[in-house]
Amino acid sequence: MGWKRRWTGRAAGTGLLLAALACNRDSGDCSRCASVVVAATGDPASLLPPLAQESVARDIGDQVFERLADLAPGAAPVDEGAFRPALAASWERVDSLAWRFHLRPGARWQDGRPVTAEDVRFSFAAFADSAIDAPARPNIAGITVVPEDSVTVLVRFPAPAAEQLYDATFHVRIIPSHIWAARPASTWGADTNVADLVGSGPYRVVEWRRGEFVRLVADSTGPQPPAIRRVVWRFAADPDAALNLVLSHDADLLETAGSPDRQARVLRDSTLRLLPYASAAYGFLGFQLAGEKAGDLNPIFGDVLTRWALALAIDRETLARSVFGREAKAPPGPMSQLLWIWSDSIRVLPFDTVQADRALDAAGWRLPPGATTRQRGSRALAFDILVPSSSAIRRQLAVAVQAMWQAVGAAVTVTAVEFPLFQECLGAGKFDSYIDAWLDEPSARGLKDQWTREGWSELNYGHYADPAFDALLERAGRAETREAAGRLYRQAMDTLNADVPAIFLYAPANAAVAARRVNGVEIDPYSWIGGLRRWSVTR
Fold first, then answer.
1. pLDDT reading at 278 higher than 80
2. What angle do CA 262, 267, 269 make, to 5 degrees?
3. Angle 247-251-253 (CA atoms, 0-180°, nearest 5)?
4. CA 480 to CA 349: how far, in whole Å?
5. Hey, is 525 helix, strand or coil?
6. Is residue 436 over pLDDT 60?
7. pLDDT confidence of 428, banded at 50, 70, 90?
8. What does each C-alpha distance from 492 to 334, 341, 499 come to in angstroms?
9. How far apart are CA 34 and CA 231, in angstroms?
10. Nearest to residue 327, comparing CAs of 146, 150, 510?
């Protein structure tokens, strides 16, 4: 899924926030109450897991709804020993195609009804329903779920694969069939009743004021009620406004401070602290490889030697650290620092402007006497970088790349457009190059949508295609051990980097902001606030 956040709504006023935190019958005995406020950018469209699109929607949903099992932070999905019990207390492999899951004894929905194997079957069917079109739908294609009794389910796969346990647990949050089964799936998105957001997790939703806040309270019926009794997500219009909520002490937590100058603002406040953690994001500059007519190559970027030369001209390490701070890195391919296949042994092109000049000469791009722009025949080495105007960071990166390419004789412009138009241009192939960013999931198989021939209809906007890369990626996804999969993924990255369909610019590290009154904070980079149930506050 792309690293795209919906920036809508307005921040709640102080009066509304105080009202949201006021003790009432939903929150239990006030003498035991402890509350935190989370600052977030944008208002989610839905909190129901199959419909959740935005990161903030998943953050909130992870407090309310459970997976069958959770993957340990930083673990590889092929490692079957890295999964922890959640809604399922235990599981075992039946054969090469099936796993059996046993639900947690006494597991109940927040309305008191027992969680059953039918709820699990129903949830997988909902995530696979084309009428809902959940983002995870392709990842569970072909999986069948069969209740064996009221608390046992058999999850069967269409073919042997190393990441079956991951696919059975990571993508699907379990939702109550007794609430949603009787309603047409096409109507779920229009349901605004928070009473229907019933989960089995540690918190339940009690109030949602669109564009302002969502309020959760700890579910007192759970086996281990959280120490933090109430949580409010406060929605800001943009990252600066979200940071200001924390700096003004109107919020306690923020997913990431952002750039080094923003982090410095946090460090000047002795009541706040920064908590560094690996980011699941990576950013890149993608080339348009296709020509205007079907089957044609782009007159500039269709030439791999030209792409090599342009990549050699970019000082990726300096660029990444100057924009994101010293913990940022230039990735060895399309991956975040968090993705388990990251390896320094993957071959990448160095920063070498001398070699860049030679490669451009070899590709036929000559610099006429007295000119500043190279030409090949009648065509100038001139092109555009497309970025969304809503991202100051991507504009900053584009300007820096523009200067580096101008130094080797390329005439480069930067065009910033509103985000909906940016997406429209990418989908229609109306760009020369573009800067984008994506969020990894723990499995590297998501690279298929971004960089294979099959991904042309998904996220592979530049229409890169290489049968050797596609085959290596497919084999890596079927590998049965971490070692075998890692070796094949590294070979795939070597192949991709040799083709240079993109320049992989940065893999940042995040720094969450937390008030010092919040204790025991440990961050899972794939769900930064997922451990909230184990945190506490000093009152």
1. yes
2. 110
3. 95
4. 31
5. coil
6. yes
7. very high
8. 11, 11, 11
9. 9
10. 510
Question: From CA 347, how far away is CA 381, in angstroms rounded?
Answer: 27
Rounded Cα distance, 359 and 339, in Å: 32
With a threshold of 0.85, does the pTM exceed it? no
Band (33; pLDDT cuts 50, 70, 90)? low
Q: Which two tokens stand for residue 450?
A: 């971004």
User: What tokens were used for 527?
Assistant: 């769900």
User: Taking the mean position of all CA atoms in its chain, how far away is CA 517?
Assistant: 28
Percent of the chain with pLDDT over 90: 77
Nearest one of 531, 534, 535, 526 to 166, comparing CA atoms:
526
Q: Could you tell me the pLDDT band of residue 73, with boundaries at 50, 70 and 90?
A: confident
Rounded to a whole number of angstroms, the CA Rg of the chain reads: 25
Both tokens of residue 506? 């940065």
327: which 2 tokens? 């913990």
What confidence score (pLDDT) does residue 318 get?
Answer: 96
The amino acid sitting at 356 is: A
Best CA proximity match to 176, nearest among 128, 111, 105:
111
State both tokens at 224. 């281990």
If we measure between CA atoms, which residue out of 333, 301, 262, 272 comes closest to residue 492?
333
Tell me the C-alpha distance between 358 and 408, whole Å.
Answer: 10
Taking residue 469's Cβ as centre, other Cβ atoms within 10 Å add up to: 24
CB 282 within 8 A of CB 447: no
Q: Which two tokens stand for residue 25?
A: 């019958």
Token output for 201: 């997790």
Measured in residues, the chain has a length of 539
pLDDT tens profile 322-349: 999 888 999 999 999 989 999 999 999 9
Angle between the N-to-C axes of helices 467-478 and 482-499, in degrees from 0 to 180, rounded to the nearest 10: 160
Does the structure show a pLDDT above 50 at 14?
no
